[in-house]
Amino acid sequence: MAKINDIELGSFPLLLAPMEAVSDPPFRKICKELGADVVYTEFISSEGLIRNAAKSTKKLDIYDKERPVGIQVYGNDMQAMLRTVEIVVDSKPDFIDLNFGCPVSKIANRGAGAGMLQDLDFMTKLTEAIVKHSPLPVTVKTRLGWDSNSIVINEVAERLQDVGIQALAVHGRTRNQMYKGEADWAPIAEVKNNPRIHIPIFGNGDVTTPEKAKEMRDRYGLDGAMIGRASIGNPWFFRQVKHYLETGEQLPTPSIAERVDVSRKHLEHAMEWKGDRIGLQETRRHYTGYFKGIPNFKEHRLKLVTAPTKDDVLEILEDVLRVFS
Hints:
Layout: E1 2-4, E2 7-10, E3 14-16, H1 25-33, E4 38-40, E5 44-45, H2 46-50, H3 54-58, E6 69-74, H4 78-89, E7 95-100, H5 105-108, H6 120-133, E8 138-143, H7 153-162, E9 168-171, H8 186-193, E10 201-204, H9 210-218, E11 224-227, H10 237-247, H11 256-274, H12 276-290, H13 298-306, H14 310-324
Parallel strand pairs: 3-4, 3-11, 4-6, 5-6, 6-7, 7-8, 8-9, 9-10, 10-11
Antiparallel strand pairs: 1-2
Helix pairs in contact: 1-11, 4-6, 9-10, 11-12, 11-14, 12-13
């Protein structure tokens, strides 16, 4: 049974990864309904929160139906990160996650995100200060190392566990790999098998099929799978993985009725959260994924991403049901 502090997550939890412009409340709610055990917010800049930047503070919105939920933050300034913890705690997440893995240059090259992997002493010092400052459990998401010559994940895991983190998620690539090549789960398994390690170790990177999730569990012995890109446009992936892990059988792809139902729900959740205009706009990017693989869908997709009102979208979705079912 994997646990973050006293939060029970199940025997092999599936975690929705924190993804910019993807893992917002509407998408998290849908993923939760379709089998995600734990969800994370989009990653949030400590500097943005302290400046009260609207984009950053809006990312703090969480809802009871998505629990357990972690708010993920990043930054490289000690005082700013401690102040960020205070702001985040007011939003009442179940835990705080520290982003020590984002490879994007504008973040990593400034010493935040994966940039922390170049200064393990400061990473440890910052984490220890945050753990002491936070009334909530603290977890970390990171990578194997900065590059192939500095695979430091075992040392990172030991040092961060020693200062009090409650779980560690590891993307099986270095910072320099970005998202290229294949994720290497073997170093993550080494962390899991390290006799000093007793916190949950979650694997991330290239969990693209139910078979891959099973391999992460059975061959590599990890405590859970964090799923990112495979869920974009395909929140059903969590349900498919769960079913395969339990039965060894593949679920069929979602029906047209299910795709339409999720599209409607996503639109409604988004408009409730962001308002009619922005909610309508932000939902558009999901329709391509929700109807991926449907032959001759191009005309309807174009209508969906240009429809000016909610009623127009709902009318088009009704037409999709009629034409493609």
